[in-house]
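Homework help board

Subject: predicted structure for assignment chain

Our instructor gave us this sequence and asked us to write out the predicted structure in token form, then describe one feature. I got the tokens but I'm not sure how to describe them. Can anyone check?
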Amino acid sequence: MGLPALMILAVGQFIGTAVGSLLSMTTSSQLRWIVFIGAVLGVSLGVLLIPGYGLIGAAIETSVAVASKNLLCVYQVNQLLGFNTLAIWRKI
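My token output:
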């Protein structure tokens, strides 16, 4: 029962690790809104998924909230600084 939940959480954390936290060093106002959006998404998904799916629903909710927050940070860094932190394969 716990292994699938752990695998789902690992995917969400991998996305978070791949993205990094560059936005937290740039502007706090955009980061505040991104964290707020991630929190609202997490609570909303938790209310929808946990009663029906239990532990797996909680793992999906957490992974989606963490991954979306970090991907929104990637988008914002791309808009503010002009580079994509996920494009590590490109030559500088």
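Reply (TA_rk): Your tokens look well-formed. For the description, you could write something like this. Residues 55-81 form the longest helix (27 residues). That's the kind of observation they're looking for.
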